[in-house]
Amino acid sequence: MDYARSSWCMSNGDDDPADASGEADAADDAEEAGGAGESTDAAAAPTLPDEATEESLNEYLDEIAERLDDAETEADLDDIDALLDDAEDGLDEADLPEPDEDDEDADDPRGDLEDRIAELRDGVEEARGPYAEDVIDAIEAAASTLEDTEWTADGRDDAADAVDAFVEEASESVAVDAFPEHDDLDELIAALDAVAEAVADADLDPDADAETIAALIDATDGLEAGLDDAEEWDDLETHEQLRAQGYYDVLGHYKDFPVEWSALKEHEARGNVDMILLALNSLESDFMERHCLEAFERMGKRGKTEASLEELLGRAEKRDQFAIRILGKMAAEEATETLVEFVSEDSNPQLQKIVFKALGEIGAAEAVQPLADQLDPEGDTEDLVRPHAARALGLIGDTRAIDPLADALAEDDSDDVRAAAGWALRQIGTREAIETVAEYADEHSFIVSTEAEKAEQSLDAASATA
Q1: Torsion region of 176: left, alpha or beta (phi above 0 gives left; psi -120 to 50 gives alpha)
Q2: Which of 75, 126, 361, 393 has the fewest other C-beta atoms within 10 Å?
Q3: In this structure, are 136 and 30 located in the same domain?
Q4: Where is the composition biased (Low complexity) (predicted)?
């Protein structure tokens, strides 16, 4: 027989009167000896027959509910948990009717009793505490909020005031030695950590120190409310955020409309990359987004910073063609790995063209072989795309591209591809590459022969200066 039935069951009427008297005396002794944290009502525990029925289980749970209403200590709640364990055991052993599966509205005694036990379990958990651990958790959450939030100047001061008030209030309950400086966020966080440590060191008992814990909980509620009320950047309107961060400071007066565009032009002229990024990420406007990206494109290498690269690479990874074009203008070697993955995307010729050019402007040696593969006339790359692959190889200028470009010049059916291959070989600029192009001076295709004539001129110029 489980603990609740064997230890807490009342007399069924068959016990010796002396035993009953002894139990009464034991109960009196328990009441006299009982202190905080000890259950003193064991003799009044409800009983459950060995063969429980739906009715007896419901009566048993009714009595447990009454005990829950009267519970004052953690020990009382522990007793109720034990009684609920007993109820679950009794329910498992009870022979209860099963509901009719074909009738959705049929009674389900077992399910109803399981729900009652679950509700009482929840009630026990809700009645527990608060504990010192709850105070510490709340303090740690506030410290995280303080550290992770982007505060305005006024908001930072208000947050600091909230921490000061909390430390002062908490020091009335536990021994705290913390005097945070307002101008140092780390000091404020350290002060909260000091209070959390003091609470842990106090070893507060949920029963004996209930008032102290409640006072600390009230203090943490005040801290949380103070931080919630403190002004964050997200609380400001967009133009207020921009003004607070100095975005409009470059303007003597507002000129073009919108004024954000006027400021953007000035930031571009001054090379203020961070301010252009601020506008790009703050202003929910297709108009301003386009102008911010165009500013980066015009700035080229001047616009390349760690922050702008991160922004543009994130866009490029999503196949944003504008961002890819800008990365090329920036000669951003960091983009090579991402862009090489797009070289073979034959289903998107426009993307390929932009990627090829960007890789050429970057001078990405890692892209030589993937680009050379796109010259294959037997492959899937469109004729309109292959000239861009050839030109990209010329921009990169790697001598490994000479052979595939020479093959394209000699064998490709497209004059556009052949002319682009001739141009690329001239850009590589070695004598071998230029002589390869010069052989086609009598070519029937004007655009190919033009490249050959320029190659001959380069050779003549080199001979004249030799």
Answers
A1: beta
A2: 126
A3: no
A4: 38-47
